[in-house]
Please model this.
Amino acid sequence: MKSGFITIVLSILTMSYSSPLLAQTASGGDYLFNGLIAIAALLIIGIVLLVGDNLVKIEAKKSGVSNTADDYSILPSFGSLVKQKKPKFAAEENFVHLTKGHDILLEGDPEEQLYAQGGSKTFAVYPQNFIGMSPIPKVEVEVGAEVKAGDHLFFDKKSPLIKYVAPVSGEVIAVNRGAKRSIASVVILADKELKYRALTAPALGNCSREELVNFLLDSGGWTMLRQRPFDTIPSPEDKPKSIFISTFDSAPLAPDLDFVVEGREASFQKGLDVLSLLTEGFVHLGLDGRAGELEPSEAFTKAESVKKTWFSGPHPSGNVGVQIHHVDPINAGDKVWYLGVQEVMTLGDLFLHGKFNAERLVAVGGAELKEAAYHKTYLGASMGDLLENNLTNDHVRYISGDVLSGKAKAADQHMNYYDDQITVIEEGDNYEMFGWLLPLSPRPSLSPTFATATLFGDVKYHPNTNTHGEERAFVVTGQYEKVLPMDIYPQHLMKAILIQDFERMEGLGIFELSEEDLALCEFACTSKQPLQKILRDGLELMREQL
Amino acid sequence: MGLLEFCKRIEPDKKKSPFLHTLYDGFFTFAFAPNTVAKNGVHIHDGMDLKRTMVVVVLAMQLCYVFGTYNIGHQHFVALGIHTGILDALHLKFAYGLVKILPIFIVTHVVGLGIEFYFAAKKGHAIEEGFLVSGALIPLIMPPDIPLWILAMAVAFAVWIGKEAFGGTGMNILNIALLARVFVFFAYPTTISGDEVWVAGLADQGAGLAANYGWIFTGFFNWLFEVFGWTTFTAGQMAVDGFSGATPLSLAYQGGWEAVTNQYSTSQMFWGTIPGSIGETSKPLIFMGVAVLLLTKIASWRIMLSMFIGAATMAMLLNVWGATPFMEVPWFYQFYMGSFFFAMAFMATDPVTAASTNRGKWIYGFLIGFVGMIVRVLNPAYPEGWMLAILFMNVFAPLIDHYVLESNISKRLKRA
Model:
């Protein structure tokens, strides 16, 4: 259908182009006459097209090959132009169609099955995963100590009530230190059979908010929550305007959360129940309404005590920041909390089973893997263990998270606290002769100057980490806006951050953004500017001001 | 790869000879895409970089170069009244055009790139690609007979004061190519005013204008063409009686559309076989450049479209007013004359100097069209309006952006 449409547009263009050619030799009066003839010709062709198209549609219906008959039409139906494509299962109301953004298609999509063997032996918690944590938190365990899953590991002296707990039971084998004696990580060698710290959760029906909060703080459940702006762990005194959960991840090679939630639907619902007690506003669920996707899991579509909104469109439609922007935007002074689906399930298990269950289904993907699939493991799993014997190439980069906003890790390091995805891509530290002009290999790009996507459609790319160019000043404009489905001017915001203009940063919407939302802009940036870093610097500046 | 190793081996020391190293770095990164990898932030980057962006723009104007070369020669011979057919004596026209355009191209690049390299070395950053496009544009907007020293002055002024003083590529307020042109226009008005400057190679010889050929024509090219048995350059040819070399715009100013069509047909104006700056006359070839820029999404269609709408609106208003013959030129014929499309395709769309918000681009483009048409028709001093209109709106682009951003900010404040 699309190609038919393009043909029509092209033929109209050629016609309209030829009319000035015909007319240019004529004098004024003939000009008008020729123009009228051209318009008449266009009309006649249009009528012929419409009639022919209808005949084909009637024939298609008669012979029974198509019910809607639109499949056989070369013209786009009026409805499909005006109304956004909406899958049948999505609700009519609360449907947000996002047009901006871009799906980067990469090789190595994880298949929906679990690895039979392997798995992580050590687990780690990195204090610096928590934004705003002081460099030297108070560590409550010593090397060699035995801990149960849910036992306290450390806390920040600035907010001692929030306890950071062990994801698994076992022996603390290292407390690694970084620069200036800061605590880099606490590493636990896991038991074969996990032991859990016994917890008595308050009954949800008849407990005060204070009791609930105190239990969450002590049990480690509080660390599942994060707050926008700044992505910090919320302060215990705060009450959020609303709480957001995105039930789909649109990032490249991201885990399919419908698969992740399978078998743990009850935990998820319990988690939602807990969250609804923490806010006076709504708990919002962002549902996957992208065309071509299957109907989301019933754990999401039938979830109770939440407000659901459907989102469709390319990445970053699954980003919680984008969803917040369209449902209940953050204004100055507002605090909105958000969680991932697996964090909600951990929260639910606290109340359902009385234990801190940090089980995580981790999607391991990337073109450099022999087998891309899911690992059933726990929070903070070892990168090297999960990827053991699974690489086809050893000149690679391990990424905890997705290729856009994840963090590079060494083989002996562990996944970050909130990540449920590992990506492995090739290092691109090679010179390429005239690589900028005549690249040898296809590479993901938004620019039509690379003909791969234009000619072949949805090609999956085999990416590497090369920057494909050097850093330059901002030159091209309008590029970021194309991939950020928010009413924000990213380039001007970046400039405001660079000159540290606080008023302008706030006015241009810095509070609504997090690194993952700008990641696609950074990918697309012709000048190779480090947008995520600039944004984080800006957010830190603003946080210091408060 | 042997070549890569060789190139790596001859790399000059950065501390000992910074200029040489900058130069080396510029050419090395031109030949080899560097091996830098993503450090923090995204791990994969778009294949597009500034070099590729700029080169696409340069490629988009190549047809204008070819035609410009031809048209220098064609106008020269038309003035002499020989080889007046479009396809007559192509070898003479191209040879003549090349001899005129090559020095312009070389001087532009030697001066411009020289300053660019010097500042890159001085400031210790890599050579930036901005001058690739500016350097390709400047020859196209110069009259063919421009004295090279004036050109050198203009380019130096534009690159030095217009760009490097502001901090280099991406920081300039005014369009570099137009700044070079406006420098010539205001600093040396006598050398490039009058109707004759748009036709190359005619010198006053008492009795009138006559062709004046140097050794390269009478010696080298005539020898070469004689070998093939083709026609040759004949020195001392007199220009035809009544030759003026006036552009359609100056004719329109004097006598409206009738005066224009007395001398040039619409077909001539459309295809570009008329006197003018080197690369701006041929509309179909500019349209092909526009197609390249739009298909690759490198130039903003918003600016192009709104500039067209702006110019058309003003031209229609002038039609209604109709106080002078020029105002009465039907609005659509205004587009046949002058350099509107060249300015629209390559000058107004410069992303650095244009408005940077999408809404701002609509306003910016529209006002260029609007103001440019006023300058063209209502102002007797300036033969064409786009150069001044674009520079004028360059200055106002940050203000337009400011108001667009303010509306975004106040929308956010109201929501709270």
